[in-house]
Recover the amino acids of this structure.
């Protein structure tokens, strides 16, 4: 078993990260979000979040970019705020803190993302092979953290399979890029 030193180190949260977070929770470009709007946005990532949770997070009033900045950097300056993005992402897909994620949970969360219309069983199997680094049949934080730190071995399709895939795409009217 690898030591903790093999896990990615926390990175500094920047103003650009803050602006990206705001774009995600305020996709329509609003300057201020009501707690209800914030709840709707956060439910994409945290399906079990409640209005009470949002009220505790935001405190009195609505949420603006400045208030988000203050909440995130409340006792720190942006230059000294560190976080581990892998851990933060893993907490989203493991909301109950079990330490492991089932593929059906990951699939459900991915289906809630804007622009994702369908994920079939082949997609789930591919994701499972990609993310379950240690091959134990479940996704742990260690698996999750390693996905971003190395290029996994992905089996390339045989020439025959590639030809069949291209024929299928051609039948569906998809042009080759």
């Amino acid at each position: 078993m690898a030591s903790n030193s093999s896990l990615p180190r926390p990175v500094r949260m920047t103003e650009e990260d803050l602006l990206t977070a705001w774009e995600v929770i305020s996709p329509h470009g609003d300057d201020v979000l009501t707690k209800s709007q914030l709840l709707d946005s956060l439910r994409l990532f945290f399906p079990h979040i409640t209005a009470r949770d949002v009220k505790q997070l935001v405190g009195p009033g609505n949420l603006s970019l400045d208030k988000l900045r203050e909440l995130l950097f409340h006792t720190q300056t942006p230059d000294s705020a560190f976080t581990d993005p892998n851990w933060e992402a893993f907490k989203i897909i493991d909301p109950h803190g079990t330490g492991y994620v089932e593929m059906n949970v990951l699939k459900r969360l991915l289906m809630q993302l804007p622009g994702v219309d369908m994920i079939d069983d082949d997609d789930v199997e591919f994701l499972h092979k990609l993310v379950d680094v240690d091959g134990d049949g479940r996704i742990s934080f260690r698996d999750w953290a390693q996905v971003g730190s190395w290029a996994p071995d992905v089996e390339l399709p045989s020439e025959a399979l590639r030809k069949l895939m291209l024929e299928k795409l051609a039948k569906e009217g998809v042009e080759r890029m």
